[in-house]
């Protein structure tokens, strides 16, 4: 692995502080020094892709080429089958320019009114991009149920309305270590670590 990371540094190509923190925690066992896209002054690319994987790749490549270092990007979101898959890749955009997830969660509650199916899942596509233009994508999911009103103030985004399968606490109520043992992001990271340890 060391020869693949000559500088032992990796750029976290995300401008979301909640995500950057979680990625730092999940990456700690890998032993690489983490540099944020913000600290390098890298711009936030427009997410023009139509899939989580395409957006993750576009963010990773912009950072890898901009920084001349390997870069890791995460594109993720909440998929609600009863809403035809919304908000999906538009999960961040549903919170509007002020990133108001109270508003986004309320919109889901409203649009779901009367729907029997309360199932939902989070998806995380992680892209590892290299300055030479190569890129690999890993995906993780976690299934659960939506609950209203929102519960808990931990985590970020849609965590307070997401009750993972078989659990009694929402991601917003759960200690971070517990979320990291089962989340979509943790599952994508497990695949990434597996790939890195393969050499
Ligand atoms: O574990 C999670 N717990 C709760 N909500 C989550 C989670 N994971 C993704 N989400 C929701 C909120 C987030 O804003 C959006 C991702 O959108 P996404 O474009 O990938 O990220 P972003 O715009 O927030 O930051 P950036 O693109 O700079 O990495 O999905
Ligand atoms: Mg984004």
From TrEMBL:
Mg(2+) binds at residues 46, 75. Binds 1 Mg(2+) ion per subunit. Its cofactor is Mg(2+). Keywords: Hydrolase, Magnesium, Metal-binding, Nucleotide metabolism, Nucleotide-binding. It is an enzyme of class 3 (hydrolase). It catalyses: ITP + H2O = IMP + diphosphate + H(+); XTP + H2O = XMP + diphosphate + H(+); dITP + H2O = dIMP + diphosphate + H(+). One of its GO terms (molecular function) is metal ion binding. It holds the Pfam family Ham1p_like. Signal peptide: none annotated. Belongs to the HAM1 NTPase family. Homodimer. This is dITP/XTP pyrophosphatase.
């Amino acid at each position: 692995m060391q020869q693949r990371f000559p500088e032992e540094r990796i750029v976290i190509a995300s401008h979301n502080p909640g995500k950057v923190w979680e990625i730092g925690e999940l990456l700690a066992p890998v032993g690489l020094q983490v540099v944020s896209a913000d600290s390098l002054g890298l711009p936030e690319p427009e997410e023009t892709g139509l899939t989580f994987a395409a957006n993750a790749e576009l963010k990773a490549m912009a950072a890898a080429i901009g920084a001349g270092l390997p870069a890791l990007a995460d594109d993720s979101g909440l998929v609600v089958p009863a809403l035809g898959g919304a908000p999906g890749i538009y999960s961040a955009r549903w919170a509007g320019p002020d990133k108001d997830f109270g508003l986004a969660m309320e919109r889901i509650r409203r649009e779901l009114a009367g729907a029997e199916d309360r199932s939902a899942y989070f998806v995380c596509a992680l892209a590892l991009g290299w300055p030479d233009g190569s890129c690999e994508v890993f995906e993780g999911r976690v299934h659960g149920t939506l609950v209203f009103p929102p519960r808990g103030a931990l985590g970020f985004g849609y965590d307070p309305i997401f009750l993972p399968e078989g659990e009694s606490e929402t991601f917003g109520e759960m200690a971070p270590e517990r979320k990291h043992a089962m989340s979509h992001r943790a599952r994508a990271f497990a695949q990434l670590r597996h790939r890195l340890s393969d050499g």
